[in-house]
Amino acid sequence: xxxxxxxxxxxxxxxxxxxxxxxxxxxxxxxxxxxxxxxxxxxxxxxxxxxxxxxxxxxxxxxxxxxxxxxxxxxxxxxxxxxxxxxxxxxxxxxxxxxxxxxxxxxxxxxxxxxxxxxxxxxxxxxxxxxxxxxxxxxxxxxxxxxxxxxxxxxxxxxxxxxxxxxxxxxxxxxxxxxxxxxxxxxxxxxxxxxxxxxxxxxxxxxxxxxxxxxxxxxxxxxxxxxxxxxxxxxxxxxxxxxxxxxxxxxxxxxxxxxxxxxxxxxxxxxxxxxxxxxxxxxxxxxxxxxxxxxxxxxxxxxxxxxxxxxxxxxxxxxxxxxxxxxxxxxxxxxxxxxxxxxxxxxxxxxxxxxxxxxxxxxxxxxxxxxxxxxxxxxxxxxxxxxxxxxxxxxxxxxxxxxxxxxxxxxxxxxxxxxxxxxxxxxxxxxxxxxxxxxxxxxxxxxxxxxxxxxxxxxxxxxxxxx
Length: 467
Description:
With about 475 residues, this protein is an all-alpha fold. The chain has helices spanning about 10-20, 30-35, 40-65, 75-80, 85-115, 125-145, 150-180, 195-210, 215-220, 225-255, 260-265, 270-280, 285-310, 315-320, 340-355, 360-385, 400-420, 420-440, 450-465, and strands spanning about 330-335, 465.
């Protein structure tokens, strides 16, 4: 969406809330309570995650008003740390992380869609779920390759279904709360808490996955009227709104379902619909409630998958425009303006990630990689104030806010090394692979120029695309 230069804080808040609420709230509570063990600690994780997202968004706004070119974090890292580090960001996040994120959304869609027809304990469920997720990626890549307008229409319609499902979920929890049926929430909410600080990072990654989109106001920082006052106000209102919505939604989950049911079921919204209606109306209505949530979440997540794929295809496109990736990645389909190679690239990577992965693992690794680089962006703010004190800034963040964001990022990066050191070391190895790629293909002007030109010409002709 494009916001006019006269956009107000209210417009920014409504857009940000709509973009932030995604598939996470329908799967993440499972991972959060699994890692922390208690209702009280689970809600605390959701609260702290919202506060960390708010501090990160406020910090990003200063960077966004300094560097207004497309690319977000890539532009900030390039300005603060140089070309090599910015290429490593593109290599790790633009190629690997974004593919995993799309795969996680596709698997969430499949979890609910296949759950309408099969129980998750059936032997063939996992294979059918992965097949459905992979098929959804293929369909969306094909649709967006044909027409971006269709993709945008799907996104708008499916957003309404997403908000409807979340609203019904909250209403069901409030109804049960008003009836006094709170036996699932004990008088000692922190009983059974699992105290394991490194493992809690997995819980934070799950909750933070639901807050993804906290930096979207930053992307329109230069287009908001009176940003010095409007930006912090809009960000605080947005994040407080999201914190409230997610806390109420999680309270509804805990009121309706037991802790064991939350831990052992991935499609928790479907179970909520089944439990509430079968208790009052019988098994037939329980199945109707389960199907309602299955269809609503599946369809809305399908729309989120479409927008995520289109958004992720833009970063390789920008990188190719700036000669950080091969030029053919910047090819645009003449007919509808789609960054066709970037779209195919992200779709192929996501398709490949679907098969060996599960939702929890993907969310964890996406969170680990994201917050490592976001932490570098946060720490760049005081550095840029020293190195570029005269650079125009229409907004300056209160530095203790940035300090909290940096400390949160540091915990989220260091903690996993104690919880699961081997995967973290493997990611360092993947990062290191980017160094010879940079010096071999990006830093050397004449490197592989002949075959790159040949490939560019062949793809331009085949895809009917141009730079």
